[in-house]
Amino acid sequence: MDFVLGHYNYWIAIFLMMVGFYTVISRGNLVKKIVGLNVFQVSVFLLYISIGTVTGGAAPIITQGIKLYSNPLPHVLILTAIVVGVATTALGLALVVRIKEAYGTIEEDEIHEQDHSL
Amino acid sequence: MIENHISLLLVVIPLIAAPIAAILPWGRASWMLTLVVTSACFVLAGLQLWAVVHNGAISYELGGWAPPWGIEYRIDALNALVALIVSAIAAITVPYALLSAEKEIPKQQIPLFYSAFLLCFAGLLGITQTGDIFNVFVFLEISSLSSYALISLGQRRQALTSAYQYLIMGTLGATFFLIGVGLIYAQTGTLNMMDLAQRLPEVTSLKTVHTGFAFIMIGFALKLALFPLHLWLPNAYTYAPTVITVFLAATATKVALYVMLRILFTVFPDGFVSVTPTGDLFLLSGIAGVLTASVYAIYQMNVKRLLAYSSVAQIGYMAMGIGFASFKGVTATIIHLFNHALMKGALFMAVGAIIYRIGACRMDNIEGLGRQMPWTFGAIVIAGLSLIGVPGTAGFISKWYLVLAALEQQAWLSVGVILFGSLLAVVYMGKVIEALYFKPASEANLSVKEAPILLLAPTWVLVFANIYFGLNAEFTVGIAEHAARALGVAAK
Amino acid sequence: MIDIIIDITLLAFLAITAVAIVRLTNLLAIVMLFGIFSFLSATLFVVMDAVDVAFTEAAVGAGISTVLMLATIALTKDHEEKKYSSHRPWLPLAVVIATGAALVYGTLDIPAFGDPESPAQKHVATYYIEKAMPETGVPNIVTAVLASYRGYDTLGEVVVILTAGIAVLLLIGDNCPKSIARNHMQEGLKGKEIAHNLILRIASKTLIPLIILFALYVQFHGDYGPGGGFQAGVIMSSAIILYALVYGLDGAERVIPSTILRLLASLGVIIYAGVGVVTLLLGGNYLDYSVLADTQIAGQHLGILLVELGVGMTVFSIMLIIFFAFAGRGRP
Questions:
Q1: Which CATH number fits domain A2-56+69-117: 3.40.50.12780, 1.10.10.10, 1.10.287.3510, 1.10.510.10?
Q2: Which ipTM value was assigned to this complex?
Q3: Which residue has the higher pLDDT, B43 or C247?
Q4: Residue B182 domain-assigned?
């Protein structure tokens, strides 16, 4: 029981990651793939923050009288990763807009059909 | 003052130049800035390699904080060599870019184009120089995002879908890498590579560390386009603007391979590769990659695509060298990493010269062009011979050392694969040469003139490099052995 | 105990939302659910004491990303074709199950959640918690690590944002080939009806100064509480986005012309990288703020203030560049 209580956070994060990952590789809609990518990444952030959590710890802002803090390093890394994530999303969506203009569709299969017929 | 900061300036100069290039109003001004910056970086990278070889590894503390509290740049012979390759190729590509990019990229977009090019360049150098594993991720994303944008600028609409496909695969790869780093951090509490190297031996038996290692490898295998994770590469190289194909083919995969070498041999303890199935997997992937991709290359009708498949095959040779997990094997990988940049750079540039003249590079478009464009044709022949591995060219040195490494372990199958791979290369390069020279030229092709000198000169610089480093292997082999030692691969 | 219950409840909500995202085909619903997903994770970050991360996730993930996704479906279409949604479902499923199994295997001997003695909590993290305050004088350890100890990462991060801005301009900026079709978002943004709605006009006029004030507070209070240049930049840009939504895109572009935005974006990166060059010239290492003033603490303060300013400028202007590019696409 202790083992489960100590690890369920990681496992649910892993489950969420895999849902996102599955969306990316199984769906043919270009927007949905990007949403899946975002779900995947946000879940990885959950994994990182879980690694840095300390039971009974406070947010890592030095306050008088508090001795135990959560680990600040994963927070810093994830702040960076969030920004990288939104940058990727913006670029991916811009590509989707252009693909729609060039092909008239955002479904992967219809795009393949058009390119093979060329 | 400068000599203490070379390693840093190498990355920061293009990083500062990129936003400036973006706001310059004229394309030519951005081009000039890019030319100056890449040439300066080439000189700095040369100085850095010289310093590392003569005075030993360099450590630079960013922010003045001692590692592992702060981020460290740590340079030994291996990353000094990779930085030199990246900046040399950039410095040669930029003069070539002037005409080629003006032809393929809309005029108003040229300043942003060079800005993105500089960002990609800075990102690749940043990955190469750093000694901090999370810093790798940040600079990886700088180079990746800019290369997605650059690829999407190709003239045909497939450039957009190729860039999208690469974005999805690349981001998945980067996220896998991130997961791996997180798991390893959970068991070591550090991100600095040298610090990890000290702390990892105690925890290598843990499942978390094994999983983390696997995720880092898969993440970079995606970026490297290691068989069978190479599916994004042929499209991306085929539809990207010529200059970008030249630059990425010669540098991006090399940098990804460098990171793998660093993690396999420096960060993880010596012997980890052979204890775990890692070595065998690399060997297997290498063999499969060489055979499959070479056969695919034979059937391609588009010359750029043919060369892209050939790149996947060449990555296979490098993976085989890692698979041997020996001093000789890693040395051969590093030698090929250097030489492949020379030959693929030259080949894509020569094909780019054809595209500059006729706007296409399908087998049936280029018939008979070899007689109209003798210098371009000559470049393709010599660089092609190098790709095959004919004695007197750089490619021969690669193959020679790779075969030696295989013989050392009596891996007869691998020796056979290396030789058979060369045979397949004869077939696909032969097809290109046949179309260019032995097929009769069409009406339209008879009036095609030789490519302008601005395209030919950079191409021939690389062609001469192929011959020079084929006849005089002292530099390549010396540095590669130095680098393999610095990596921590034990010489047997 | 109560922590565990909140934690489990939030995780359950997250799981339900994620599964709904895979299963639905209405893209509008999917995007709204993603906004919820992102917001729920922000809440979870607060429960796990990661306040800065929560703040950023709420502003960036639930805010900007969702807005961009909405803009994209307005420009493309809002339905996934059902017939394509499940071709070859077995291969992806097998890959995902294998990957998930590998990850679960990897967590079997990972230290338990919340263990204060785990390796991740020792070593570097302990150093930051003990030394960040005396060495930099900044009580918010996250800000100290972000802007100083790992300040070079943050420079890279600002450059990533700049890269995204340049990439979006290359793809769908003013100079790119345009589509002729008008689209519903454009109709909304032309905003005849919205602009004449009295309540919206008055509400937004009151809100916008407050948002800007809050952004400035977040920008300059990041040393002491959650916040900093990233969050401030995003909040500041949301004020202009609100203005654009109510008064139309042209109005917003008159307030901040795109050439100014480009200059600001580049300038932000140059300020950040330039602080590093100044420290070089003063004889320190790159981004070693200690040489900027007489004492180490004063130098660190000044350095962090300046680089956060650079961050804020670039994030603010790139967010707007990206928004304007998406919103302006398809303008006749």
A1: 1.10.287.3510
A2: 0.95
A3: B43
A4: no
